[in-house]
Design goal:
Blueprint lengths: L5 H14 L6 H11 L3 H15 L1
Helix pairs in contact: 1-2, 1-3
Length: 55
């Protein structure tokens, strides 16, 4: 899925992770953006859950 929201959606995941010294694998970002369909709520939930389990 590549559309206008994809860069912003990917940034919504990667920027907070970087503040915690973490990083998502590019494939993980692609999957999370695709599965969330770019909806901010789902991006936030996917990102929060992933970071909590990864930290």
């Amino acid at each position: 899925m590549v559309d206008a929201l994809t860069p912003a959606a990917a940034d919504a995941l990667t920027s907070p992770a970087e503040r915690y010294g973490c990083a998502f694998e590019p494939e993980a970002v692609e999957i999370l953006v695709r599965d969330s369909r770019g909806y901010p709520y789902f991006l936030q939930e996917f990102g929060r859950t992933t970071l909590e389990r990864g930290l």
